[in-house]
Fold each of these.
Amino acid sequence: MASAALTLAACNGSESFPAQEGFDAAGSEDKAVTLANQVMERQGGYERWQKVRYIAWSYYGSYHIWDKKLGLYRQEQGDKVVLMSLLKPEGKVFSAGKRLTDPAQVQESLERAFTIWRFASDFLFLPFRLKDPGVTLTYGGTGVTMTHDTADILDLIYHGTGPSGDGRNQLWINRETHLVSQWAFYGTPKDPQPAFVRDWLNYRNYNGLLLASQRNSASDTLSISHIAVMDTMPQELFFSARPVDKGQVLMWGQQKK
């Protein structure tokens, strides 16, 4: 399955990867930008990434559904459901199907959900954000991953636009597949050591996008589950006040538009 997915992604190599407004093109290095372009192409291409409407996944006990087109977001933790706009942020919070009405409690829940969203989304599709606003890309030379592969290192610096403002990520790009194979996260750009180093493996084709579910470190294991990429989904399910059937969402993710 993985080889078929790589072949599919390679067919999209002619697609461009335009930078978003605010990307630090002047401060970014040509070799680093070339690596970012290769990663985007191998994962399905910019055009496919732009056309995808919904992405769902589970991460660290939370279940997420993101409407990319409208900027809407659904987060589930147990019987708590948050439905919000990522552009505001504003929304509704439910517990056991009942809507919370206390303004302070709702605001706290929305702010927490937004923070979780930012980290949870980076854990799944950070490689699609390499030319986001406030990002500078530089080339960090070569390195050897935890799985003993030689890779090119892409340094990604956030200037106020990362999950916690300023930040830094290092991505190891496999020289054969041009896919991310390892990830290091730094709390601040000046931290001498990363907060963690995790692999970025187990790629599969999800409706035209290559996404990796394995995030193991040297000391623990972590997998992202219930991944689904959809062009359509019933709106009533997206706005349900109670947890949704993840199996049903996975079935929608297997359907072609």
Amino acid sequence: MFLQRLSIQNFRGLSASQIEFSPSLNVFYGDNGVGKTSLIEAIYFLSCCKSFRTNSIDNLTCYNQDWFFIDVVASKHQTGLQHSINVRRVKKQNRVTVDDTIIRKASILSQLLPTLVVCSERQRLFLASPQTRRNFLDWGLFHVKPNSINLFSKYERVLRQRNSAIKQGQSSDLIKTWDQELIGMGEQITQLRLWFIKELSKILNRRYSSSFGDNQFVINYDAGYGKYGNLSDAINGGFEQDCRYGYTRYGPHRSEFNVVYNDRNVKDDFSKGQIKLLVYFMVLSQAVLIEREKDIKPWLLFDDFSSDLSVDSVDMVFSSIIKSGCQVFLTSAMEFTRYVKNDPNVCLFHVEHGNIKKMI
């Protein structure tokens, strides 16, 4: 699916606009604070009814308004069949339709419009919280194996119930009624994540590791079992401490991963620019895996694209983005004319004070 046309009104500080996109690369440039990020935030919201900048959806509405809309026409790559997708938020309620059919689950929309984003938080992937890294992993996994969302939802429900029983000081027998279900689903989640990391590592090393040198990346996954070899032993062995601390301390909700290059953790050894470059390549690797497993190309959203990158790194990642074959939306404070000059597959937009002007 590629995005052909977008109409938007009352979204953050953006002026009411109708924009025609390239199925390949779309670049939005301009000074900081003029609305570039808001534009790709709108595209992201379209794909999942969430923001990558805030948990408060009401902050997305233009000042002194209580509604916004995002309407798009999107086409399937294989058939060219067009779809009309409309997202409206009125008085703190979302209404989503695809070809006039109401969509009640954001996960359905996300499967239809798979989207990967590199924003300011994602650029700090290895310096942020473990939850940020789990989200990075699970968002890619969801697009490859959409049914995994049901497993994660059930696991979270059982985890909440077990934690609630612990906090309320319920009997050991009652607390342990949740254990077998929690263990079974937790082990399934671990196996899914391990599979995803294994496949992601293969793609990352095959396509992109040479950009950093002669070594290979190793992605290490900590399943969240502590000193225990499996989740069953962790849940049983940690029961008394769970009751003392008031929550379940072991399981995939406590998992973590790190990336090692040349026997050193990239968090400690890579520069800020190198980390950002690696994050780009990990996202591009996710896109390759999604296409391989589901035969679809996700949208790629890159915010503040060129900051912290050397000229050589910009050239390198820009070339890789073009080769991905995905529809790409990126923002940058730098002027991109030298990269896109005379390329009919590129649309260049200048953004100023919320106004979006197509240049080429």
Amino acid sequence: MHHSMKSAGEGEAFWRFSLAFYAQPGVAAALIELQDRSGRDVNAMLYGLWLAVVRGETMTAAAAAAPPADAAVELRALRRRLRADPEPDIQALRRRVQAVEIAAERVAQARLAASAGQPSKAADRAEAAAANFALAAGEPPPQAVARAIWRFTRRA
């Protein structure tokens, strides 16, 4: 698939936003819990948040329904299995698997952004972020995510 410079730049902007949003207090735990409980894709949730917060756009149903990236899912499962082994060599291997898992997440985000369809403009970024999140997650944002949405949308 050919990506224009614009989509590559947007993919990078989406990745940087994801790292910053994910680092907000309680957000990582809330997103992982939701992913583990419902099988929803964290990247789709983050994409909906990015669209609304940064671009002021609502998410398409196709983007919200994006399946989790198989490679990242498999690598995450392997990394979690390795967590129980206390051997230093195994823990070093687990850190390397995590680095590959993160690379797989980044590829998944770029694919999602490239194939998500045409979003539409939103009147209110915070409301759109909550609606996009609910579309991708299947439920409203947990408290930590709602607080992060508020922090990010008040910056603009």
